[in-house]
Specification:
With 251 residues, this protein is mainly alpha-helical. It contains 9 helices and 5 strands, in the order αβαβαβααααααββ.
Length: 251
């Protein structure tokens, strides 16, 4: 809807979107529909030439003299097995009975982080940017902060203006991004399934967050339970509905 306000002020706009039904209902002045999974607005990561194709195709819509205009980008990036992205398999659902030595696991996560630090620095240098840092905590603070919640405690937020539970969500996102950015650059990988399997099923960091999920589901804190139920901590939600027996099944 913002496009109409911009256009009324003399600015030309182009919308790039994934949900065709929404675009058809809103009828923006110019729109390019992408048959891509959610979260991939420019298609293929680390492929500037491909991303440039999308931008050029979108900007061509500015040549249209009247609208609304809706055109399809010719390529398709398929959704895999009915999913918009990686989802943790049901057998990896954990309970508080699986939580044993939190401090030991936190130490193992710290060791993983240290092992990846050189590769992460190279990734940031090569890209000239990083998405890590939304929480504003230092990287070495991520695991201990999450670990306090896994122990059933609610640590005081070190960040002014952000309480501990919203900060927890940002810390989880930062930790995931740290691993993902490192692996995608170091190993040249563009495969959400493989990256998800590595992080959630094989890394110590993924296990720590799944312990966090298990503890949160039994927490008395409604906000903490809600962010887990909505799959904002772990990717439990499939495109055609929640996996039975997981946190998202209560959503």
């Amino acid at each position: 809807m913002l496009a109409y306000y911009f256009e009324s002020a003399g600015f030309s706009t182009v919308l790039v979107g994934f949900v065709r039904e929404h675009i058809e209902a809103i009828k923006p002045p110019r729109a390019m529909w992408l048959d891509f999974p959610m979260g991939r607005p420019m298609g293929k990561p680390n492929d500037p030439a491909y991303q440039n194709r999308i931008l050029r195709a979108s900007f061509k819509l500015l040549d249209k003299s009247c609208g609304p205009v809706l055109e399809d980008f010719p390529d398709t990036i398929p959704v895999r097995n009915g999913r918009m992205g990686y989802a943790i398999p049901p057998e990896f659902v954990m309970s508080t009975d699986d939580i044993v030595d939190v401090d030991g696991l936190v130490a193992e996560v710290q060791a993983e982080i240290n092992e990846l630090s050189e590769a992460y620095a190279k990734a940031v240098t090569a890209r000239g940017r990083t998405t890590v840092g939304a929480s504003e905590l230092e990287i070495e603070e991520y695991a201990p902060f999450i670990g306090e919640f896994v122990k059933g405690e609610k640590p005081r937020s070190p960040r002014k203006g952000v309480t501990s539970i919203p900060l927890l969500k940002l810390v989880v996102e930062d930790l995931n991004a740290y691993y993902t950015e490192t692996w995608t650059h170091r190993d040249g990988i563009d495969d959400f399934e493989l990256l998800g399997k590595w992080f959630w099923e094989e890394s110590k960091a993924g296990r720590l967050i799944m312990w966090l999920e298990a503890m949160s589901l039994e927490s008395d804190d409604k906000v903490l339970r809600q962010i887990v139920d909505m799959s904002l901590i772990t990717p439990r939600f499939w495109s055609d509905g929640p996996l039975p027996g997981t946190s998202a099944s209560q959503w």
